[in-house]
Amino acid sequence: MKQELRIDRNIDLNQFVQVIQGETRQEYNSNAKGVCVDTRVIKQGDLFFAIKGTRDGHEFVKQAIEDGAAACVVDHDMNIPNQIIVPDTLSALWNYANWVRTQWGKTVIALSGSNGKTSTKEMMATLLGEKTLKTPGTWNNFLGVPLTLLLLETHHDYAVVEMGINHFGELTHLCRIANPNIAILTNIGPAHLMEFGDLDGVARAKGEIFSQLKGSDIAVLNIDDPRIEAMKSSITVKTMTVSQKQNANVQVVSKARLAKGYDLKIMYGKTEINVKLPVSGEHNISNYLCSLGIASAVGMSPEKIIQRTAQIAQVQMRMEELNLSGQRKIINDCYNANLGSFKAAVQTVLESSPKRFLVLMGDILEMGAQAVQIHRDLGKLMADSKVTHVFVVGDHAKDVIDGATQAGLPKEVITHIQERSQAAQKILPYFQPEDILLVKGSRGMKLEEIISDLEQELEG
User: Fold this and answer.
1) What is the SS3 assignment for the chain?
2) Which of 47, 165, 313, 423 is 20 to 30 Å apart from 143, CA to CA?
């Protein structure tokens, strides 16, 4: 479900005008009750920001007033009651969020990476405890980050702020708004190549997360990723390292697979601890280590680490297991996708030694000039994984099929689904009792809709 672009917050409007240096014609004798940037979800008493996006928010100011907005932030005189005029409404939102963060004054953790951001965010929030604010849903962009910061309250001890980008300079700007004390990258992978060009470009863009750290701030580095390890020499603040493979401040000593998750022995600073991580997938060990790096950076005790690790849960639509009739299982991993996360998902399923392994795959979006080759590589991944059957949806279906057949996967075990409405009917004859079906693609492919159709057919 898409996160509504509004929050509850009590705002002294006279103070707000001063903070953002806005122009208004009146004194306000009541406070706003929330912040909203979308009139479809506005509530009585909200402060409405007319943001220029796909649609210009100024087109909806009249609607906001009719729906009871306490005030509207606009970039020109609209001759309406309770208007607050600023040069740029988005900058006003950013500036106010930064002011709120500064007044709060505690520890902000900035988190980014090509894979695993959301899973790592959830793990961090669990380890740091109930007084931690975390980014709601997918609020990781130029609107989501400031709205997240506006959720800060005095009872919060930490804020874990997820940051996603698709352009150079974005992370620098988001970090100026959030002013993090600690920053971490999970990994560098082939995401948003349309803008970044190649992995080195991704590393340059993601490396910006460390650009605003200063003084006693801390950079946490997953040194199992060579491009992140290479950043260490240019970082001017204290660094904390995590690794599954080499010496680090937080490192895996040994691991054993359990029926659900892993038994891990970890060097946590100078203390060896034994924990049971209750989620599957080698990539989740890496995500967990990143979370431990943050926990170590804030000085969390080994005892709390052990206690709170047991509370970690699988994120919805991230390798989420759905059990259906006939012991059929769907692995719903359609929260998002790139080549690296595809490989991790396939490997996780193969670790469970399924009798039969089926895959429903959709396009990886925003790959630019490399899209064709990346989807051919996906096809080769399917062939190398010796899947029982592959169902392909999307504009790059032919590229996936070409890559798979060239790598030796027989054409008869590949089904190209051209009409999404018929996807469930195409899949069901092959989806036998005790089968595992992995469903994965970019968020924009909305493959969860096909999962819903399959559930209805099998359970209805």
Assistant:
1) CCCCCEEEEEECHHHHHHHHCCECCCCCCCCEEEEECCHHHCCCCEEEECCECCCEHHHHHHHHHHCCCCEEEECCCCCCCCEEECCCHHHHHHHHHHHHHHHHCCEEEEEECCCCHHHHHHHHHHHHCCCEEECCCCCCCCCHHHHHHCCCCCCCCEEEEECCCCCCCHHHHHHHHHCCCEEEECCCCCCCHHHHCCHHHHHHHHHHHHCCCCCCCEEEEECCCHHHHHHHHHCCCEEEEEECCCCCCEEEEEEEECCCCEEEEEEECCEEEEEEECCCCHHHHHHHHHHHHHHHHCCCCHHHHHHHHCCCCCCCCCCEEEECHHHCEEEECCCCCCHHHHHHHHHHHHHCCCCCEEEEECCCCCCHHHHHHHHHHHHHHHHHHCCCEEEECCCCHHHHHHHHHHCCCCHHHEEECCCHHHHHHHHHHHCCCCCEEEEECCHHHCCHHHHHHHHHHHHC
2) 313
CA distance linking residue 452 with residue 300, whole number of Å: 41
Predicted local distance difference test score (pLDDT) of residue 5: 93
The values of phi and psi at residue 315, to 5°, are -80, 140
- Residues 26-54: tens digit of each pLDDT: 899 899 999 999 999 999 999 999 999 88
d(CA 69, CA 72): 7
State how beta strands 329-332 and 389-392 pair. unpaired
For 339, the enclosing helix (H) or strand (E) is: helix 339-351
Residue 391: both structure tokens together: 């169902």
Give the pLDDT confidence of 259-317 residue by residue, as tens digits: 788 999 999 999 999 999 998 878 889 999 999 999 999 999 999 999 999 999 877 77
